[in-house]
Amino acid sequence: MINETLVELSRWQFAITALFHFLFVPLTIGMSWILVIMEVVYVITGREIYRDMTKFWGKLFGINFALGVATGLTMEFEFGTNWAYFSHYVGDVFGAPLAIESLMAFFLESTFVGMFFLGWDRLTKRQHLAGTFLMALGTNLSALWILIGNAWMQNPVGSEFNFETMRMEMTSFSQLIFNPVAQVKFIHTAAAGYVAGAMFVMSISSYYILKGRDLPFAKRSFAVASGFGLAAILSVLVLGDESGYEAGAVQKVKLAAIEAEYHTEQAPADFTLIGIPNDKEMHTDYAIKIPYALGIIATRSLDKQVIGISDLKKDHEVRIRNGILAYDYLLKLQAGDKTKENLTGFDDTKQDLGYGLLLKRYTENVIDANEEQISMAVDDSIPPVAPLFFAFRIMVGSGITMLLLFVLAFYFNAKRVIEQKRWLLKAILFALPLPWVAIETGWLVAELGRQPWSISEVFPTFLSVSNLAVSDVLTSMIAFISVYLILFVIEMYLMIKFARIGPSSLHTGRYHFEQESDASPLLHLSTTKESLNV
Q1: Which helix (H) or strand (E) covers residue 345, if one does?
Q2: Cβ contacts of residue 447 below 8 Å, gap of 6+?
């Protein structure tokens, strides 16, 4: 029988690793393009202040990049240590994008990260800019290939199950790459990273402006971040709508759980703004709804229904019973009984084999499952509603709040009165964690919403784990958490240290800028003791 403790601990360990890793990835993705923008302005104008901006923010980028690499490598090893049967079952498909990411994107990114830091005095301006651009390109390509792999877990196209090898095999590499879920997922995730990078730069720049220090540097950094961030947050919201449409098309269960849509409503369905999901009574208590909104977002129409959880369960029961037949045919084929009847029967039912495997949680002999076990498997086919419902709303609420901040920041910066809006600068400073709140809750929605599957509708999570002792997983998880906490403290210490020192640390003496205009004064920067005080 399945060791539920082992499954849960393995899931927790991977979730903690992924959540921690995702603290660093978005900032790396976002800041890479901000560095490109700043260096482009430097190359075009020749103004040293933009060189300083690129180098200073690049220093913080480098600290973050190092921590992201360390935690990302751990995640890839966990596929082999904690999820060995997952790796065996889907490795022929899932391994391809991971291998391409390592061999192409990560090496590209790592090589040009070195050139970025070591090439300032060794390369021409244009050569160094080309290296910075390729560094940003590599960073985004890394995210692309990882998300292609993850999107395949959500929507396993371009592959099929081979009963002779008992593994999933790739049938179309192009379908894997151009998976519609992958396209939306990458652009949405990358744009979220751009928001994180922009908010990071804008928040620290707000701190400098509030303190009245390094003003030329801070105001220019703020201008770049506010414009870049506004474009990015608009992209996130538009692509979030597109993600809702894709979920409605290929992940109906996830959509129903996110919206606590217990019953199929008359089209177009209302969107539940807030409420308390009640699984026992299959109802959302104290619900406040926006008429028609869910139907329009999920189906792009006024006459198509969003299927509710109760109806999805009925469909899943049919598929589980069909999966029992598929499992029966599979056993016969494995035993060598490859008659035309068995081959045809398996081909007709194999799309539901994964649903039959849900019964493995309750019985070794799937074909003899009783009604109670089938009923429990049907209940298992729905992800937990309440965590998804609230996580989604926290994500959206954080996004809308950031949209408001970026709009105000961009507007007042364009009016050149941002220094006078201290209330806004303080709000932006304290809003620094918001991108990570949105990103982490978004990850929770994406991954928890796929449950009970490691590969959606193909392979259950509880069958994917390695055959390990519970004590081994628990010990390693405690060790991981301890090391990660130490790394997080180091990261925060270094980030805060260099942010407090500020851009003046780039120079050993005092230098001057001419005043460009009354509205945009360039003040003196120095590394005197007073300029380092916060």
Answers
A1: helix 340-349
A2: 15, 18
State pLDDT tens for residues 452-492: 999 999 999 999 999 889 999 999 889 888 988 888 898 88
Query: Distance from first CA to last CA of the chain, Å, rounded?
Result: 60
Q: Residue 27 in contact with residue 193, Cβ under 8 Å?
A: yes
| DSSP designation for 265 | P
Q: Which of 290-298's residues contact partners 24+ apart within 8 Å by CB, and which partners?
A: 292/268, 294/259, 294/261, 294/268, 294/269, 294/270, 295/265, 295/267, 295/268, 295/269, 295/270, 296/268, 297/241, 297/244, 297/245, 297/248, 297/271, 298/244, 298/245, 298/247, 298/248, 298/255, 298/269
Residues 6+ apart with CB under 8 A from 6: 465, 468, 470, 473
Residues with Cβ within 8 Å of residue 273, at least 6 apart in sequence: 288, 289, 290, 393
pTM: 0.87
Q: How far apart (Å, rounded) are the C-alpha atoms in residues 192 and 196? A: 6
SS3 content of the chain, % helix, strand, coil (to 5): 70, 5, 20
Q: Where would I find the beta strands (DSSP E) of 34-178?
A: 159-162, 167-170
CA 409 to chain centre: 26
Contact 141, 108 (CB under 8 A): yes
* 262 closest CA partner among 300, 320, 313: 313
